[in-house]
Specification:
With 269 residues, the protein is an alpha/beta fold. It contains 9 helices and 9 strands. The protein has a domain of 138 residues: P-loop containing nucleotide triphosphate hydrolases (Rossmann fold). A hairpin with a 4-residue loop joins strand 1 and strand 2. Helix 5 crosses helix 6 and helix 6 packs parallel to helix 7. The protein is globular and about 55 Å long. The two termini are 37 Å apart. Bound molecules: adenosine-5'-triphosphate.
């Protein structure tokens, strides 16, 4: 579990030293194995909060902590898997020794995080290679990860320019999964996709949540995409959470006027 406690991020900019409260005294918890959606219009502070959670920015005040409970639950799962595995099998041992990181991020524009001159197998294997994982094993894992994101092995030797936008997002997710994250932060990853491809990607994330046993912080400005997908949602405006709770409850009975306005915009365009 991850706890965000009274976290603020204020920026000072311009000649007059104007202060922007991008995130203002936000508190929330992320539970193991849940999809938590962060909703809000452009500039409401979603990406800043996600970057604070991922440790890419430091808060002006407040604390973000991983509780022992989460660390232990991951460790227990790994210990159980280890005891089930055949200890004499070297391939399995290498997989157990695979590097991991607690948080991985996937962004709206996959082209920004992919070297256009690299083949897909090298893009997916990059985090493993940076952690000194052996090349051939990294490639064989990359192929397994491609299968997990429902792309066949032919994609291994393609370049990003030979993949569609939806396929590139799957490749970005495969790369993130290579580090067995506890939390996957997905920041507007479906914004540039058409509705059918978007829906397929959300279904993929749902199944990965189960199979990988991870949590997902899903950031979007579109309230209409999260029904049947996110377990809980926080609606943000001007750096402040307007309301937070079970997704279906908030969609059915929104308490804040801002959420109601967002829903009206979805219904009436
Ligand atoms: N480095 C920075 N310096 C000054 N202001 C910043 C900085 N980063 C973000 N902001 C401001 O903080 C506010 C929140 O920005 P943020 O990118 O978190 O919003 P967002 O909800 O993710 O928007 P979008 O959906 O457009 O990405 C905005 O007013 C933005 O201009």
């Amino acid at each position: 579990m991850l706890r965000v406690d009274q976290v603020s991020k204020h920026f000072t900019s311009g000649k007059k030293g104007q202060i922007t409260k991008a995130v203002d005294e936000i508190s929330l918890t992320l539970q193991p194995n849940e999809i938590f959606a962060l909703i809000g219009e452009s500039g409401s502070g979603k990406s800043t909060l996600a970057e604070l959670i991922a440790g890419l920015q430091q808060p002006t005040s407040g604390t973000i902590t991983w509780t022992e409970e989460w660390r232990e639950s991951k460790k227990d799962k790994k210990d159980n898997e280890d005891s089930k595995d055949n200890k004499d099998n070297k391939d399995d041992k290498d997989k157990r020794d695979k590097p991991s990181s607690r948080i991985q991020l996937v962004f709206q524009n996959p082209d920004r995080s992919m070297n256009p001159y690299w083949r897909v197998k090298d893009i997916i294997a990059e985090p493993l290679r940076l952690s000194k994982y052996p090349k051939q094993k990294a490639y064989s894992l990359a192929e397994e990860l491609l299968a997990k994101v429902k792309l066949n092995a032919d994609f291994m030797d393609r370049y990003p320019s030979e993949c569609s936008g939806g396929q590139k997002q799957r490749i970005a997710i495969a790369r993130a999964l290579s580090m067995s994250p506890t939390l996957l932060v997905a920041d507007e990853i479906t914004s540039a996709l058409d509705p059918t491809i978007e829906d397929e990607l959300l279904q993929l994330l749902l199944s990965l949540k189960q199979s990988e046993g991870m949590s997902i912080l899903y950031i979007t400005h579109r309230l209409d995409t999260i029904s049947g997908f996110a377990d809980r949602v926080a609606v943000m405006k001007d750096g402040v959470i307007q309301e937070m709770g079970e997704t279906e409850t908030i969609l059915a009975e929104p308490k804040s006027e801002y959420t109601r306005a967002l829903l009206r915009a979805v219904w009436f365009g």
